[in-house]
UniProtKB/TrEMBL annotation:
PROSITE patterns: GATB (PS01234). HAMAP family: GatB. Allows the formation of correctly charged Asn-tRNA(Asn) or Gln-tRNA(Gln) through the transamidation of misacylated Asp-tRNA(Asn) or Glu-tRNA(Gln) in organisms which lack either or both of asparaginyl-tRNA or glutaminyl-tRNA synthetases. The reaction takes place in the presence of glutamine and ATP through an activated phospho-Asp-tRNA(Asn) or phospho-Glu-tRNA(Gln). Residues 333-480 form the Asn/Gln amidotransferase domain. GO terms for biological process: glutaminyl-tRNAGln biosynthesis via transamidation; translation. This is Aspartyl/glutamyl-tRNA(Asn/Gln) amidotransferase subunit B. Its EC number is 6.3.5.-. It comes from the Bacteria. The gene is gatB. GO terms for molecular function: asparaginyl-tRNA synthase (glutamine-hydrolyzing) activity; ATP binding; glutaminyl-tRNA synthase (glutamine-hydrolyzing) activity; transferase activity. It is an enzyme of class 6 (ligase). Belongs to the GatB/GatE family. GatB subfamily.
Length: 482
């Protein structure tokens, strides 16, 4: 996009809450299931059915609000948001309007090494709508659509940002950080591919240096971090080109076509007064005491930003490694548990970011599901520290631990992997390697110091990786200088 224009983005992020039952009835919130089987008269909006608020939804909302530095309103209420769409069985959505549960928060993100604060206008509770099942890839290329009401009534939080985001990269970083916080709080699984977390991207452009906002479009239900970034970048470019060509941006709702990498217009964007909000008559207002708010605050876990600072100051990790190891709470907990079991934090981080991470990724698991427990990893590191095994042998041991579930000590004994530290035994191998490799020996004596690396490798090969590397180097240096 031309530097003449500035992108302005506000995001409305919807997250499904990880409660066992829906927001106003006892139906399960479990993902999947046969279509239209997780329903009852309440979530289907049948005449005479009365809603009852799920208490855990309120507690989860307070948690998220506190974690995002919001003011929690002691008095808030539900409202009816009236509109017609096939996936909305009541023809209105029970949501919050003028008195939401949370107001005026913020979230700090980091992009290209710079920290930026994104304001959060509000967080409100609401019920989810159903899901349209299209015959084609998207609504625009479908000949028919069916509706599945299983998702209707699943509790949602809508987190509305200020229009402080200025690029696709910032939009992505904001949603990624938000998802991490929700997962840390254990209020949502954050699985964007299942629709548990999705974003509505409000995008406009304006001449750089001006204060007045341009006409915005809203691209609905974007369900991946990559897609959110692409939507912002594409839509900003589309609008800038349209304006440059003498056209006018229409305020409309659009959808993202991932296959084509474009947004597609759907309908005119509704204004707030089109929804004819009014207080929900079937639900009493919600009163939250200061004592309750403080009770929830005290129970908040240590969040990612605090963990990063602790891992840097207490464990001595680099900020980059600390950030990587704290994106997931379960990953951070794994590191903490391994350190608690007696291992050095930097060594643990190296194994987690290296061999163990590779095995976890290849298996499609998480650190919470790792087949090598924190205690077993700490045990293996202790054997390295004691000189029982070398780092090279440890790479074999950790694979055996993963495959067998056994601890390192057992594997080392069963497979005869104890490191050779007997000087006499290593000396014999060193002499044999020197005798069998006259050219590298001559190269070393001729001033090529790197040639010793080949000889070290040959000694380790002959000892099947069991010779103490330090002793190998020392003995080679001694005999090569004779």
């Amino acid at each position: 996009m031309s530097s003449k224009y500035e992108t302005v983005v506000g995001l409305e992020v919807h997250t499904e809450l990880k409660t066992k039952s829906k927001i106003f009835c006892g139906c399960t919130t479990e993902f999947g299931g046969d279509q239209n089987t997780h329903v009852c008269p309440v979530c289907l909006g049948l005449p005479g059915a009365m809603p009852v608020l799920n208490k855990q939804v309120v507690e989860f909302a307070i948690k998220v609000g506190l974690a995002l530095n919001c003011e929690i309103l002691n008095f808030n209420k539900f409202d009816r948001k009236n509109y017609y769409y096939p996936d909305l069985p009541k023809n209105y959505q029970t949501s919050q309007y003028d008195l939401p549960i949370c107001l005026n928060g913020h979230l700090d993100i980091e992009v290209n090494g710079e920290t930026k604060r994104i304001g959060i206008t509000r967080i409100h509770m609401e019920e989810d709508a159903g899901k349209l099942v299209h015959s084609g890839n998207t609504i625009s290329d479908s000949k028919s659509s069916n509706v599945d009401y299983n998702r209707t009534g699943v509790p949602l939080l809508e987190i509305v940002s200020e229009p402080d985001i200025r690029s696709g990269a910032e939009a992505r970083a904001y949603v990624e950080k938000l998802r991490s916080i929700l997962q840390y709080l254990e209020v949502s699984d954050g699985r964007m591919e299942e629709g548990s977390l999705r974003g509505d991207c409000n995008v406009s452009v304006r001449l750089r240096g001006t204060k007045e906002f341009g006409t915005r479009t809203e691209t609905k239900n974007v369900n991946s971090l990559t897609a959110i970034q692409k939507v912002v970048e594409y839509e900003a470019l589309r609008q800038a080109k349209l304006i440059e060509a003498g056209g006018k941006v229409d305020q409309e709702t659009r959808t993202w076509d991932d296959a084509q990498g474009i947004t597609i217009g759907m309908r005119k964007k509704d204004e707030e007064n089109d929804y004819r909000y009014f207080p929900e008559p079937d639900l009493v207002p919600i009163v939250i005491t200061d004592e309750k708010i403080e009770e929830v605050r005290r129970a908040l876990p240590e969040l990612q930003d605090a963990k990063i600072e602790r891992f840097v100051s207490e464990y001595g990790l680099s900020r980059e490694d600390a950030t990587t190891l704290t994106v997931s709470r379960k990953t951070a907990d794994f590191l903490d548990a391994t350190v608690k079991a007696g291992a050095d934090a930097k060594t643990v981080a190296n194994w987690m970011l290296g061999d163990l991470s590779k095995m976890i990724n290849e298996s499609g698991l998480t650190f919470a599901e790792s087949k090598v427990s924190p205690e077993n990893l700490a045990g293996m590191i202790a054997l390295i520290d004691k000189g029982t095994i070398s780092g090279k042998i440890a790479k074999k041991v950790i694979v055996s631990m993963w495959e067998s579930g056994k601890d390192a000590d057992t594997i080392v004994k069963e497979e005869g992997l104890v490191q050779i530290t007997d000087t006499g035994a290593i000396e014999e191998i060193v002499k044999q390697v020197i005798a069998n490799n006259p050219q590298p020996v001559a190269d070393f004596k001729g001033g090529n110091g790197k040639a010793i690396g080949f000889l070290v490798g040959q000694v380790m090969k002959e000892s099947k990786g069991r010779a103490n590397p330090g002793m190998v180097n020392e003995l080679l240096q001694k005999y090569l200088k004779d």
